[in-house]
Amino acid sequence: MNSNIIIRNVYQDSVNNNTTNSYWGLGDFINGCYTLFELSIKYNFILEIYLHNHILGNFIETNSINININKETISFYDRTNIITTINTFIQSGMRTFNILTNGIPTPLNNTNFINFFHTNFKPKPILDNLIRQFMKENKLIPNEYITLQIRTGDKNMNESDLFNFEKYIQMIIESKINKNTKVFFTTDNKFLKQKLSYKYGYTISPEDPIHVGMVTSSLKSAIFTLLDFYVMGKSSRVISISWYMWGSNFSKWCCELNNIPLEVISMNNYE
Fold first, then answer.
1. Which of 3, 32, 223, 238 fits as disulfide partner to 103, beta carbons 3.0 to 4.6 Å?
2. Higher pLDDT, 221 or 155
3. pLDDT at site 157
4. Which region holds residue 182: left if phi is over 0, alpha if psi is between -120 and 50, else beta?
5. Which one, of 134, 102, 113, 118, lies nearest residue 225 by Cα?
6. pLDDT at 23
7. pLDDT mean over 55-72
8. Closest residue by Cα to residue 1 from 108, 68, 95, 100
9. What is the DSSP letter of 71?
10. From CA 212, how far away is CA 29, in angstroms rounded?
């Protein structure tokens, strides 16, 4: 690597060129890191994961020190322009570039990224201890439980009336999950979280879900979102039921990074 060239993927809840009111969840951010990782090999630069502008930086240790990057200087780049943007930067002769990108949606083709990510995106002691305590209290043994994830979508996160959605979910659960199976359940909808965990006796984290790409000041909700990610990453398989055809980047990257089988079920198939 050329130690004189550094590109940082800066995770934060707003950028100076967001005209669509879009938000980028943890899975989107990891996807951007993977795209930049691939480009770092091609262009020979150092990739840093920068969380100091985001609430998650309280709980995750990365390979980037806090240099007080001004949030208002960060621009967002997506699949349509990230490659040309990086190429332009490399040709410019500049030595540092701070951006936010969700990258190009692709499967994990370079397994070296797994080691890079786990080395440079590590739980701080406060999060690591919480994960250990939660798994012990709930008798979750790595690889001896499955994870059920339900992604209702950003517009439905706070929606309480999801009758048809719930009806189809129940059909899926009863056809896919043996009643004797130990299940960790995570979802982006707080009403489903309570209803289904009560109905089926699934293990859940105690806090209401949040979208970490949106503005939030809730440290408890943020740390338990990360707990969901890491507990999912210790399960034997993941079933992801999603409002979206592509599933969920949250579970997709959790499974890719931990070599866990993932079954994606789109609700479009049950309409």
1. 32
2. 221
3. 45
4. beta
5. 134
6. 66
7. 96
8. 95
9. G
10. 10
Q: What is the pLDDT of residues 23-33, one digit of tens each?
A: 688 999 999 99
With a cut of 60, say whether residue 163 has pLDDT above it: no
Residues with Cβ within 8 Å of residue 227, at least 6 apart in sequence: 127, 130, 131, 134, 205
- Report the candidate in 9, 7, 18, 8 with the shortest Cα–Cα distance to residue 214: 18
Indicate whether 268 pLDDT > 90.
no
Residue 52 bridge partners (DSSP): none
Q: Which residues contact 128 (CB under 8 A, 6 or more apart)?
A: none
Order of strands across the sheet that contains 6-10 = 46-50, 6-10, 96-101, 76-77
* Residue 43: partners with Cβ closer than 8 Å, 6 or more residues away: 5, 86, 87, 90
Residue in this structure with the two tokens 């879009």, named with its chain if needed: 22
Whole-number Å distance between alpha carbons of 48 and 209: 28
Structural domains of the chain, ranges and CATH numbers in brackets: 6-122 (no CATH), 126-270 (3.40.50.11350)
Residue 152 has pLDDT above 70, yes or no: yes
Residue 168 has pLDDT above 60, yes or no: yes
Q: Assess contact for 248 and 23: CB atoms under 8 A.
A: no
